[in-house]
Amino acid sequence: MEMNENIKNTFIENLRKQGIKNKQVLDSMSSISREMFIEPALRMRAYDQDALPIGHSQTISSPFIVAKMTEEIFEQDNMNKVLEIGTGCGYQTAILATLFKKVITVERIKALHEKSQKILHELEMKNIKFIHANGFDGYENESPYDAIILTAAPKKIPDSLIRQLSLNGRMILPLGDDGSQKLFRLKKTRTGVNKKDLDDVRFVPMLDGVV
Questions:
Q1: What local confidence, expressed as pLDDT, does residue 7 receive?
Q2: Is the Cα dihedral 106, 109, 110, 115 positive or negative?
Q3: Is residue 207 part of a domain?
Q4: pLDDT of residue 101
């Protein structure tokens, strides 16, 4: 199922109705074929407003959440380097790669790390660096980052990731446990970290180690 014009228009209009306003984010969501990242049996649901399973007890976030998180870390003049924790199927990675000059993406599950690389290489996205590692460690070799995005929920903000943010860098992450999670936007300043509560969310938990 390729995204025809009617599906694409409805998809983008739904995101607008849900409050997504940034034209570059909407253009990015329109340009990336979401069905490429979905298991074949679920591709008819690729443009539904739902999170979908991608195997290994992981999910692809709903289109709205992907767009919302991307919009929240978009800053027109500060889009050089972003760190993504949790590559998953690679859909959020692809969206980031259309907007940032360089994407560093970390995945703890080797099967997903390898699968997402294959898909994104097929899309000829050359500004992505793939790392198979523990997400709690981030990737210090490329730090500092203008932005960091987490696609799984830790119970508390990882200090190691705050350290890897540049001054005035921003981070978006779900925070909490299975019972209660909130989406937060953080901004690193000279006097500390500013924290803004955005929404109630439900993400898979962020786990330690690699598999």
A1: 86
A2: negative
A3: no
A4: 98
pTM of the model: 0.95
Q: Which of 111, 69, 110 is nearest to 93 (CA)?
A: 69
Q: Side chain identity at 55, as an amino acid letter?
A: G
Q: Is residue 42 part of a domain?
A: yes
Beta bridge partners of 170: 147, 187
Q: Are strands 145-150 and 81-85 parallel, antiparallel or unpaired?
A: parallel
Report the interhelical angle of 23-31 vs 63-73 (nearest 10°).
Answer: 140
The H-or-E segment that residue 130 falls in is strand 128-132
What's residue 25's pLDDT? 98
Helices 63-73 & 5-17 angle (0-180, nearest 10): 60
Q: Which pLDDT belongs to residue 102?
A: 98
Q: What's the confidence (pLDDT) of residue 127?
A: 98
Positions marked active-site? 61
Nearest C-alpha neighbor of 135 from the set 109, 112, 171, 98: 109
Tell me which DSSP letter residue 61 carries.
Answer: P
Domain that holds residue 102: 5-200
Residues pairing with 39 in the sheet: none
Phi, psi of 103 (to 5 degrees): -120, 125
Which CATH number is 73's domain given? 3.40.50.150
